[in-house]
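Need a sequence for this fold. Nothing fancy.
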């Protein structure tokens, strides 16, 4: 089973994505802050990390690129 770490703070998106990913057989962990995501990702047990890039003033983008580059 693939493990996904989702960085998201919007409860509606969390609920919808959690349902969809789990229905497809993925194991999903949700971090609501960048600090929490960094801590979980450091454990090394996730195959993929994802975000929508709109989390808390662009924190999702910073989470995807620790060097702070914009896309």
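Here you go.
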């Amino acid at each position: 089973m693939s493990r996904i770490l989702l960085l998201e703070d919007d409860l509606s998106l969390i609920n919808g994505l959690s349902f969809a990913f789990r229905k497809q057989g993925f194991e999903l962990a949700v971090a609501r802050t960048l600090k929490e995501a960094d801590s979980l990702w450091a454990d090394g047990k996730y195959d993929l990390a994802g975000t929508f890039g709109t989390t808390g003033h662009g924190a999702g983008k910073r989470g995807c690129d620790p060097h702070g580059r914009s896309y």
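For context: The chain has a mean pLDDT of 80.
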